[in-house]
Amino acid sequence: MYRQNAWKKHAKKLDKVMEFAEGYKHYISEGKTERLAVNEAIKLLEAKGFKDVTKVKSLKAGSKVYFLNKNKNVCAFIIGNRPLTEGLRILGAHIDSPRLDLKEHPVYERGGFAFGDTHYYGGVKKYQWVTIPLALHGIIVKKDGTSVVVNVGEEENDPVVGITDLLPHLAADQMAKPLAKAIEGESLDITLGSIPLLEEEKGTVKANVLKILKDKYDIEEEDLISAEIEIVPAGKARDYGLDRSMIAGYGHDDRCCAYTSLLALLDTKAKDVTNTACCILVDKEEIGSVGATGAHSLFFENTVARLADLLGIANPLYAARITLENSKMLSSDVSAAYDPLYAYVSDPNNVAYFGEGLVFNKYTGSRGKSSSNDSNPEYYAWIRKVMDEANVHWQNAELGKVDQGGGGTIAYILGNYNMNVIDAGIAVLNMHAPMEIISKVDLYEAYLGYKAFLIG
Q1: Which of 326, 290, 292 is nearest to 308 (CA)?
Q2: Do 281 and 316 sit in the same domain of this protein?
Q3: Is residue 418 part of a domain?
Q4: 89: which strand partners?
Q5: Chain mean pLDDT for the chain
Q6: Which of 276, 345, 349, 390 is the most exposed, having the fewest neighbouring CB atoms within 10 Å of its CB?
Q7: Contact in structure between 277 and 287 (CB atoms under 8 Å)
Q8: Do residues 80 and 104 share a domain?
Q9: Given this model, what pLDDT does residue 44 score?
Q10: DSSP 3-state assignment of 432?
Q11: What is the mean pLDDT of residues 125-133?
Q12: Average pLDDT over residues 118-134
């Protein structure tokens, strides 16, 4: 159903929408980093009978398997009744979000405080990250190969960390600067402590922080070189609005699409799968989809080749290329929602609205469609038919006015395989902020749309 309010459709069965949102709130609250999002995904997969591919010797129609890559990618499949080379139905989302990362030599002392030196990740408005409670998540890997999980700031009795800011009384110079310059990247350092190490005559605040880390995690300062510690907003996702119609939380971009894509696969019955169904969750989209865990990696292509091999197909690498070329994909990524308070950045006829369901972007990119996957109209028409036959509420949008800016997704990367790809996701307010907002009914309609696509 094109551009109609989806709340009316669910007026007599709101419980389904609200119940689905609760599962998502748990997922996004627990999965605040790529590793944590993958961990939660694997729990859900295994609960639905999906098996780690390393424990499987062969596959057949109806088999359910998943592949794990460096603890930051997961790719799950339900093998269909048709030959693999006739193409996959792919739902692809990213599970990284803008954040702060600790540098390799992070702990230093100045003016009676110990700080953690950070480097921001992805597109952030730096001023949004000061004076809010922040949590630490990640791992520290020691030279002997053992690793320690770090999780500080989420439990009720945990301490939190944060970034200080100037009081208004002394901020005349700061407030005269443009927003982009008011808070510098090198100023986004978290406060770690203020008590000196009293056990030694020359004790310092830094020494005390390192002692706390030693006592809690049995690590030395040098071990922080081989650590991956992410700083994210502390606290759980919450209902937003007096009517509880929305969800406020960190990381909707793009974990709301990751969760709905994954649940769509999990709730699809194997008997209904004709073309092999796939959900892939990737890393590094916010910085260009680079590296071993980004969409540019050969991981996905190699995964499809492994599938071909397990299915007994000759020349699996060649079969993988043919399979990908014949595939259909929804690049499951969020879209910018219309904000009446900032209406000037949007074209009102080509923008995503809260409550109108799954959002399709024929193209993204910036200005002259730079770095865009521009989906062909034949595929778009097929998508429209699938959505309408399944009674899914959907809409179409662009990412702001033509010269206002823009952004991209992983769609163009998978499009390089000559497959049909279009962006399909959920409208988000406050995108890339520490607190983003989505509509519960859009979340649910995305799930329904993704399910329809997998068997369409």
Answers
A1: 326
A2: yes
A3: yes
A4: 277, 328
A5: 94
A6: 349
A7: no
A8: no
A9: 98
A10: coil
A11: 97
A12: 97
b/e map 124-133, b = 16+ CB within 10 Å: bebebbbeee
Phi, psi of 135 (to 5 degrees): -120, 160
| 242 falls within a domain | no
Residue 446 inside a domain? The answer is yes
Residue 35, SS3 per DSSP = helix
User: 40 with 31: CB under 8 angstroms?
Assistant: yes
Phi first, then psi: give them for residue 97, nearest 5 degrees: -140, 155
**Chain centroid offset of residue 305 CA:** 26
Q: What CATH number should be reported for the domain holding residue 150?
A: 2.30.250.10
Tell me the backbone φ, ψ of residue 241, rounded to 5 degrees: 95, 150
In order of 30, 174, 245, 306, 448, the CA distances from 16 in angstroms are 22, 48, 13, 38, 12
pLDDT digits (tens, 9 = 90+) for 244-262: 999 999 999 999 999 999 9
- Please report, to the nearest 10 degrees, the dihedral formed by the alpha carbons of residues 97, 98, 99, 102 taken in order: 90
Radius of gyration of the chain, Cα coordinates, nearest whole angstrom? 23
Q: How far apart are CA 386 and CA 61, in angstroms?
A: 23
Residue with tokens 């959002």: 359
Residue 6 phi, psi dihedral angles, 5° rounding: -80, -20
**404 Cα distance to chain centroid:** 24
Q: Which domain holds residue 203?
A: 100-233
The b/e string for 135-173 (b: 16+ C-beta within 10 A; e otherwise) is bbbbbbebeeeeebebebbbeeeeebbbbeeeeeeeeee
The answer to whether residue 201 scores a pLDDT higher than 80 is no
What CA dihedral angle connects 133, 134, 135 and 141, to 10 degrees? -160
Length of the chain: 456
Q: Given pLDDT bands bounded at 50, 70 and 90, which one contains residue 64?
A: very high
Question: Which residue is associated with the tokens 């998978």?
Answer: 414
pTM as predicted:
0.96
78: how many CB neighbours lie within 10 A of its CB?
A: 25
Give the type of residue at 429: L
Report d(CA 406, CA 124) in Å as an integer: 14
Handedness of CA 375, 376, 379, 385 (dihedral sign): positive
Distance between CA atoms of residues 330 and 278, nearest Å:
11
Assess contact for 323 and 88: CB atoms under 8 A. yes
Spatial separation of the C-alpha atoms in residues 22 and 16, rounded to whole Å: 10
Q: Is residue 243 part of a domain?
A: no
| DSSP tag of 402 | T
Q: Say how far apart CA 387 and CA 26 lie, in whole Å.
A: 28
Per the listing, tokens 């259909």 go with 328
Reading the block at residue 151, the tokens are 């999780």
